[in-house]
Amino acid sequence: MYIAAGKAQTGQTTAGASETVGDGELFVLQPGDKDAQIISRTIVTGKCYGSPVGYNGKLYIQTEKKLYCFGKKGRGTVAGLPAASRQAESNKWPAPGEAKQLQIIPYEVLLWPGDVATFRIRSLDANGFTVDEKIDPKSVKWEPFIPPTALVKVTMKASFNEKGELVVAKDPMPSAGQFKATLGDLSGYIKGRVLPNLPLKQDFEVTS
């Protein structure tokens, strides 16, 4: 099977596009010895820069406008694609092992002076499976963290309160940095950036 995406304008093609197809057209081709057979032809909305993904008997395509899913309703098949293994459906999800790390959600934040951010914390095993979905943020120890290999050693103008919330200083100053969360032998990280609110004021009279 081969997927061909259409060109944006005459003489100009998008990434991976074919010279012979029109705007917004998607072809599914079956290669032959000398040519190819068109299995399906579809008009999609928006440019497509990513590769189509086949999963569980469906074909997924993301454009800048929409997410498309091609295939029969339910666990069917897509032309040219094998159906998902029925054996996989009967396999149970692996049981998680011993907790090895903390995952902080979200990992990265963009904040403004005076903002307060909350986080969800869970523990993961060595394979990334969730061990504990709901860890109380108040039970975690937070501290600023600067990676040993960091070329620019900076910290965020913020701190964690007793509720496990990240409170940004009210000073209208930009800053960025990371925090490390620790619970026993487990640890996890977040990073963030603080930008001042509008309107911005610059004072070039002050020197240091």
What does this structure look like?
- It is a single chain.
- The protein is mostly beta strands.
- It folds into two domains: 2-86, no CATH class; 101-194, Immunoglobulins (Immunoglobulin-like), CATH 2.60.40.10.
- The protein is built from one helix and 16 strands.
- The strands form five sheets. The chain has a four-stranded mixed beta sheet with strand order 8-16-15-12, with no helix packed on it. A three-stranded antiparallel beta sheet has the order 1-2-3, with no helix packed on it. Strands 4-5-6 form a three-stranded antiparallel beta sheet, with no helix packed on it.
- The chain is extended, with a radius of gyration of 25 Å.
- It starts with a strand and ends in a 14-residue tail after the last strand.
Write the layout of secondary structure elements.
Layout lengths: L1 E4 L19 E7 L4 E8 L9 E3 L2 E5 L4 E4 L15 H5 L10 E5 L2 E4 L4 E2 L2 E5 L5 E6 L5 E5 L12 E3 L5 E3 L6 E9 L2 E9 L14
Shape: extended
Low-confidence region ranges: 6-22, 78-82
Number of helices: 1
User: What is the name of the CATH class of the largest domain?
Assistant: Mainly Beta
CATH topology (fold) name of the largest domain = Immunoglobulin-like
What portion of the residues fall into strands of 2 or more residues? 35-45%
Q: What is the number of strand segments?
A: 16
What order do the strands of the largest sheet run in, or round the barrel if closed? 8-16-15-12
Helicity, as a percent range: under 10%
Average pLDDT works out at 80
**Helix/strand structural class:** mainly beta
What number of domains?
2
Radius of gyration: 25 Å
Distance between the termini: 64 Å
